[in-house]
Design goal:
By secondary structure, the chain is an alpha+beta fold. Helix content is 29%, strand content 21%. The chain is built from twelve helices and 17 strands. It has helices at residues 89-112, 130-138, 172-201, 217-220, 250-259, 295-302, 386-389, 399-434, 463-479, 494-500, 503-515, 577-583; strands spanning 145-156, 230-235, 240-246, 269-271, 274-277, 311-320, 330-340, 343-354, 357-364, 382-384, 438-440, 445-449, 452-461, 516-522, 528-537, 549-560, 575-576. Strands 1, 6, 7, 8, 9, 10, 11, 12, 13, 14, 15, 16 and 17 form a 13-stranded mixed beta sheet that branches. Helix 2 runs antiparallel to helix 8 (399-434), helix 5 crosses helix 10 (494-500) and helix 8 packs across helix 9 (463-479). The chain is extended. The termini are far apart. The model is unreliable at 1-5, 388-397, 487-491 and 586-590 (pLDDT under 50).
Amino acid sequence: MDNIYPPPTSPIPPTPAPTPTPPPTPVPPSPPPSYQPVPPRPVMPPPAPQNFQTPPPPPMSPRPPMSSVTPPVTPIIPGLGVRPKKSNGLLYFLIILLILVILGGATAFAYTQQLWIFKPSFITYPKETFASSLLAKISEIESSSYKISSRLNVGPRDARAKPFELGKNLDPVLVANYQDDYERVQTLRQVLDLLKQSVVKKTNTAKTYPTELSLASDLAKKSPLLKGDYQYQTTENGKNFLLSATFDTDQAIAQLNRYDVFGSTTPIIVEGKTIKFTKDTSTYLAINSDLPKPFLVSMTDSLKLIPADVDFLGEFNMATEKSLDNLTNWLFGFNIEGKMSDLSYKINAEALRKNGNYYFKVNNVPSLFFLGELATIKGQWVKVIDKNATSSDENGFSLFSEVAKGLPEFEKKYKERRAEVFALLKKIVEIADQKQVIVFKGEPKAEKINGQNLFRYDIGIKKESVLPFIERVTEEVAKSPSSGELRGVSVIDTAWLTYLGSEEFNEVFDYLDQNIKLSFWTDKAGFPIILEESLRLVPPESATQLAGKQINLVFRTVLSDVNIPIKIDEPTNAKSLEEVMKNSAGDFNL
């Protein structure tokens, strides 16, 4: 580009060099540096003066109507384009989807938990009439299948689980009195034996009993009977006698009051603390040599003998084609298996009645010396004809035939006594409702078990109602024609009535109430389907092999196919008892 600025008018003369001091050798001066002169900055003309007065605004035009207002146009910037308007459609979709998910989840939860409109309708029972209402419903069952099982195993100890301990030690006076009762029982047993022998030894036809106990005087001198706390007299013109003895403790009386189930033709007579014996009284008299410990204490002590790996399962199955009133055709089976240390075992067998004949089958049996030969017929149905079962067996003893012989008599007695027993049971449960024995532990609720809608009741026992209930039941049992056959049942023992009012009972009840759970499940129609009772046993500290563990015991009854026709088929390929015995080796009889 051409230079617009003119060059300077005259060149700048060079500066003359100073006169140097003449050196020995003269040096010529250096030439001046050459450079380009810098042109001067041009002078700009001054700006023209401006008027800073604000001009008046232009006149405003009239505002157009709203309908004709045109929105301002957004200027288009090159390279950027027009910014689109933001849409809310995706947000609305997500909100609707979330609502549907919540509603679907709530519906599924209500369905699985049987809530809201999905809550099934049940026939329920109030606690005031729970027992009698349930029994009335049971009487409507015409046919069903039953499964009763029990399970015992060892598991980790629950929090706050403690072994049972009595709040106080045994009374030494009670212990001493019980020892006197023990000696008294030993003497009575020998006196009764001597009295019966005295009649056997007589040769005359009268065979009367002695008028006094002179023959047993030496024996009596060594026992508490010498105190005069007994009485003896003959009855029925000497053909019978009545021997009475007074005891000191309820514990001894309670044991004697139950002993005669072992063979007495006439039960002993208990009047307060006095017990009376006759010629029909069995000479088998026995009580514990030491004062019996409370049941829970004895059971807790026995846990010392249980290994830590014990496991037991027992199952019993039964089905009937018709009501239990008829027992026309039935099927029964049981399975028992378990292990304990190095011992394991399994027993499984079945029995049925069809068209008047009985069938038996052994599926599993331990290989023990007294059961091993049963393995020879394992899995084989054995047929015992009804008429042969009730007749004598020419081939000697037969396990199956002996069982079959007893079954018709059992069925006959069952049919005869069922109405009487059921009437007594009905009266007992009515008393239970009247005394308000049953209480609900929590509100009953619906549950689904194995795909079946059931209603669950967790029940307990009211402690204050136990004694009044037992007293009333004792009265009803005494009125029953079967009262003689019900001897040995604890509710009729007067000693139990005393025990139920003691402090020891309060401690035992409170402990059991904390360690026992009892539950019922009923179906929509109100039929009982499941009954389960679980018991927690906590071993004492002395059971070192069970440290930190507990024993769980569960009883469970399950009903199925209620009032649904059940068909029991006659086994095919069954062998007769005679054929099996003929093919058996040696003198082995079944």
